[in-house]
Amino acid sequence: MIQAVKKYYKVLSGELPKAVGGIAVLLALIVLGFVIGMV
User: Fold this and answer.
1) Which of 37, 15, 33 is nearest to 25 (CA)?
2) Which residues cross the membrane (predicted)?
3) The whole model's pTM is what?
4) What tens digit of pLDDT does each residue of 19-36 get?
């Protein structure tokens, strides 16, 4: 059980930053598009 949790946490800690980075880039593009659209 503990082994599985550790393994899952390892995968999660490796994948999560990528997902967060992707979402951040997406949000930045949306905000940029919105700002350009308003100007």
Assistant:
1) 33
2) 20-38
3) 0.53
4) 888 899 999 999 999 999
